[in-house]
Amino acid sequence: MTLERIAFAASSAPMAQPLGLPVYGMNRGTVGFLMNTYAEDALLERLAEAELAEVNPLRMTAKTAGGETQSALAINEVSLLRAGPQAAKLRIFVDGRERLSELVCAGALLCTPAGSTAYNYSAHGPILPIGADILALTAMAAFRPRRWRGALLPSSANVRIEVIEPDKRPVLAAADSLEVRDVVAVDIATEPQITHRILFAPGHGLEERLIREQFA
Asked: What is the pLDDT of residue 126?
């Protein structure tokens, strides 16, 4: 393994995936919360001993009010957020079946196990074991229904979120850091044909970090 086969941030994973390269992410303070500690000493030795985790991303297909369609991948989550002063109104479908006719909230997200300690965690969503074939659907500041706390869905689920009253209550969608404004509908599904390979220091793999976070 050579220096040309590594990257220094988790955001590099999508760039490395087409090359078939694993990513050894390092935390520089503002990104890479679950990544390895930053250090350049003995880097080749650490790479040779690293543990491998494989993650399938989510694919977001967002349709805008102007009729455009944009697609993007997300390792952590796909989120829909209110883009104006009023709460968003969302309608949620799972595998073509309407499951929630109206969710009034600041936003909602669907996350992978790898992303469950990111935005999902700050929104009081559950932490998911890295090997679980589960996605977490979590609301942010839900106003109605008041008792709804989100849902756990199989990783094979196809989720569609439609925006109610998009002119009055504009919503933006984000796949990790890629943002699409004025969306009217967003389809989200796991992309099984794409696998991101992420390396971790021995004993500090993603599964161990997710477990440890729950006992912090």
From this structure: 93
How far apart CA 145 and CA 176 sit, in angstroms, is 26
The CATH number of domain 58-190, selected from 2.60.200.30, 3.90.45.10, 2.40.50.140, 3.40.50.11270: 2.60.200.30
Query: C-alpha distances in angstroms, 157 versus 124, 135, 187, 195?
Result: 22, 8, 11, 18
DSSP per position, 104-134: EESEEEEE-STTTTTHHHHTTPPP--TT--E
Nearest to 200 by CA among 23, 18, 12: 23
User: Is the torsion defined by CA of 109, 30, 122, 116 positive or negative?
Assistant: positive
pLDDT of residue 9: 43
Instruction: With a cut of 50, list the residues of the chain below it in pLDDT.
Output: 1-10
> How much is the pLDDT for 136?
98
Q: How much is the pLDDT for 10?
A: 44
Q: Does domain 3-55+195-213 have CATH number 3.40.50.970?
A: no
